Amino acid sequence: MSSVSEAGNNQIDPDKLHAFMGKVVGDFGAALSSTLVYIGQRLGLYKALAEAGPSTPAELAERTGTVERYVREWLINQAAGGYVAYDAASGRFHLPPEQAVALADEESPFYVGGGFYVVKAMSRAEPQITKAFKEGGGLRWGDNDPDLFVGTERFFRPGYMRDLTSSWIPALKGVEEKLKAGGLVADIGCGHGASTVIMAKAYPNSRFRGFDNHAPSIEHARKAAEAAGVGDRCEFEVSSAGEIPGEGYDMVCFFDCLHDMGDPVGAARRACEILSESGSALIVEPMAGDTIEGNFDPVGIGRTFSAASTLCCTPNSLALGGPALGAVAAEEKLREVVLEGGFKEFRRATETPFNRVFEARK
Description:
This protein is an alpha/beta fold. It contains 14 helices and eleven strands.
C-alpha cells in the first residue's frame, strides 16, 4: 500500500486508517465475545469459577456440567478479553475479585451481567429494526425477545440498589421524611418491580404501587415482592402511564422509562394529577449530553445509550405513535415534556456517571 492513497477527493492518512482498522477488529472481538459472556451468565460459568478458584478447563467443565472442549475455547476468549485471568505456569484460569463482583455476584451493586442479556435481546430485534429504517414504524417493548425483560431488571437493579435510597430519594425536597413516616408511592413503568421492592425494603412504613403495561412483568413483580417479604405493602397493576389510578401520592417515579413512552407528556400530566400538592416526581434518565457531541465520551456511555436507543427505546415510542425522545434526549427536551404535562418545577437533583436524576413538582 502506498503511503498516501486517494478515495475520491480525500487523501487517506495511512496511520489513521491502520488505527481505525485496529478499532474495528477490537469491535469484532467485543461483539462476538458479548455472546460468550451471555453464555457464561446462562451456564453459571463465572459463578462456578469464582467459587472454585483457579481451575483448568476440565475442572470448570466438570463443575458446571458442560463440555470441556467448549469451556477451553470460552476461557481462552475470556482471558484474551481480560474477563478472566490465566496463569501459564499452572495452566489454570481464575476470576479476579474485581471481575467476580461484576460478573458473578448478582447482589453486588457493581454487577453488570444483566447487560449481556439486553445485548442479546436487542441484537435479535435487528430484522424488525432494519425494516423500520426503511418503512417507518417501530417495535414495542413487549414484542422483543423475552431476555430483554430479564436483562433490563438485572442490568438496572444494581444501580438502584446502590443509589436509589442512599442518594436519589434524599436529593428530593422532603420526600425521604415522608417515606420514613409512612407515604404512598407510584412506580410507573416498574417492569419486574426491582425498584419498587428496593424502596419497600428501605421504607417499611410506606406503601408502594407499581404499574406497567406489560402483564408478564407485573406478574413477575408480584412474585418478587412476595419473595422479598414486602408483598403486604406492594401492589402491582397493569396500566398505561397515562391512566394510573389513585391520588395523593407522595412520590411518583419514572425509572429509565419516560423517554421510551408513546405519550410522555400524557404520562407527565397523569403523574402531576395524582401527586399530592407537596409531592415530587422522581425521573431517572440515562446520562446524555445536551448536544450531539456531548455524547462522544471516552468511556463509551453515549455510544452504548445511543445504540440501545436506536434498537429499543426509539422503536417503542414510534410504534406507539410517540415523539421518540430516545435514551439520549437532551435535558431541555425532557424539561419541555414535563412542564407541558403541568409541572411548574423541574430540576436536576443529582446524577451519577450513568444517570441524570430529575425532580418535578407542582
